[in-house]
């Protein structure tokens, strides 16, 4: 039921909530009613004047018949669904996202003290290139085109694809070292021998953090020759694009090895 309810809410841009608790019948069945969150009149929880959010109350001041009636027994769940959202429009500012649907994206910049500072946020129930285009377009409308020489992101092409579409291409596109390391750790389980896994993990760190291009090339060649199953994953995903994640390629880009801009 919960899965169906969330899918229906996403499809109709709505949110159904319980205004009262559940009721248990004599036969043990549980009855619950879920009303559209915009139905009814706003009532402050405390006495006195409470400040509303800038977008105002989600309540429209009247009740309407959009409701989900649920009867749950030990054998099944019976649902009666009345999707009539009469007298109100689907306004995004009043659309509530469930915890599982929320995605937060932030744009960070480097200040004069070389600290990463978040300057723009996006909360959405989707993480797609289309959403990020809207997000970056909003930034562009507020401050104009941002010309940057370096763009750092996790290993998801949607971020940079959207940025380059809105703001233009960037010369240096880097992968966040924290995300790279996390991906490696998730795939190191391909190596069954714990001691071998430990050695490979240490070698990965040495390869990634090498500041000398010549030394990196030697380490890389030796590293790949010694790997087997994990090596195939590494070859496919990282060996062909070291300029995006190896520190020696970051010299002079303003992204130093203490990773002040990267995720903790």
UniProtKB/TrEMBL annotation:
Q: Which organism is it from?
A: Trichonephila clavata
Tell me which InterPro entries the record gives: RegFact_GeneExpr_CellDeath (IPR052797)
| Gene name, Swiss-Prot/TrEMBL | NCL1_60146
Name by which UniProt lists this protein: MULE domain-containing protein
